[in-house]
Specification:
Helix content of chain A is 14%, strand content 21%. By secondary structure, chain A is of the alpha+beta class. Chain B is of the alpha/beta class and 205 residues long. Helices cover 39% and strands 18% of the residues of chain B. Classes of the chains: A alpha+beta (66), B alpha/beta (205).
């Protein structure tokens, strides 16, 4: 319940070793949520759930030509 | 070469856990070595930990810190509360939490890497914090009773779990009704291809 990302930041830049973080635009985040008080609250939250995820291009996919 | 021959083998959870354990054993044993992530006190500053939160925490714990966020920025831990720290590493977040919930609260730190747990236990002893204990275990099977915790914290760990649903279900199981989840982790802005998800090197680096 109450899922919320409160903070995001590039926390991998300039790390001592190169990694894969840059390839995927990896960010550090803070998020919070809470457990439902009871089954009724959980069921009501599920019934009201709406989640839209924008389509993203795979990191392996070739860039479109101009 | 056709796609079938190029395809990475299915991810073996045991092999992945071993690779992650080896990586974090290095963070415990040789924290100055330099990794593909930042570590230690400079990282804690980057993640906006307060000086007062780190006051009294032994340097041996701070030097092996490898979080990606700051669970304490998400809400206050109150005296008397019970906290579970999933993937506690060398114990920095467990110790910060213990300072906040003392004297009547309790903290259980769980980690799968023995060298990290050893550092965490020594640090707790060094800090004189008796309200914290460390247990060996996996995030997908937390060694904590149902409904024990007011708050579950974790920092830079969930992304290392091959079965994130199982880890989140465990966090929910150990929380009381209305219990809070305060997590630092990572977010990728570009989709990771399925083939890449089967590469152990990508999980650890």
């Amino acid at each position: 319940m109450g899922f919320e990302i409160t903070w995001r930041k590039d926390v991998f830049s300039d790390a001592p070793q190169a990694g894969s973080a840059e390839n995927y635009g990896t960010l550090g985040i803070n998020f919070r949520a809470r457990k439902a008080a009871n089954e009724e609250e959980w069921a009501a939250a599920m019934a009201a759930l709406s989640c839209e995820v924008p389509a993203q291009r795979s990191a392996e996919a070739p860039a479109e030509k101009a | 070469m056709n796609d079938v021959l190029r395809e990475e083998p299915a991810l073996d959870v045991g092999t992945l856990r071993q690779a992650i354990q080896e990586e974090y054993d290095e963070v415990a044993s040789h924290p100055q070595k330099g990794f593909h992530f930042h570590t230690g006190r400079p990282l804690a500053r980057m993640l906006e930990y307060l000086d007062e939160e780190l006051e009294g925490i032994p340097e041996s714990s701070i030097e092996s810190f490898a979080g990606t966020g700051n669970p304490f920025s998400l809400g206050e831990l109150r005296p008397g509360e019970r906290v579970v720290d999933v993937g506690c590493g060398a114990g920095i977040d467990s110790l910060v939490a213990a300072k906040k919930v003392t004297p009547d609260g309790r903290v259980i730190g769980v980690d799968m890497t023995p060298s990290m747990l050893e550092k965490a236990r020594r640090a707790a002893e060094g800090a004189g914090l008796k309200s914290v204990e460390f247990r060996e275990g996996y995030a997908e099977a937390l060694p904590v009773d149902d409904g024990w915790a007011d708050v579950v914290i974790s920092n830079g760990v969930l992304n290392l779990m091959p079965d994130k649903d199982a880890a989140l279900e465990e966090m929910s199981r150990v929380l009381k009704p209305r219990g809070r989840l305060q997590i630092g982790d990572i977010l990728v802005q570009k989709a990771v291809p399925e083939s890449a998800k089967r590469k152990i090197d990508l999980w650890t680096g």
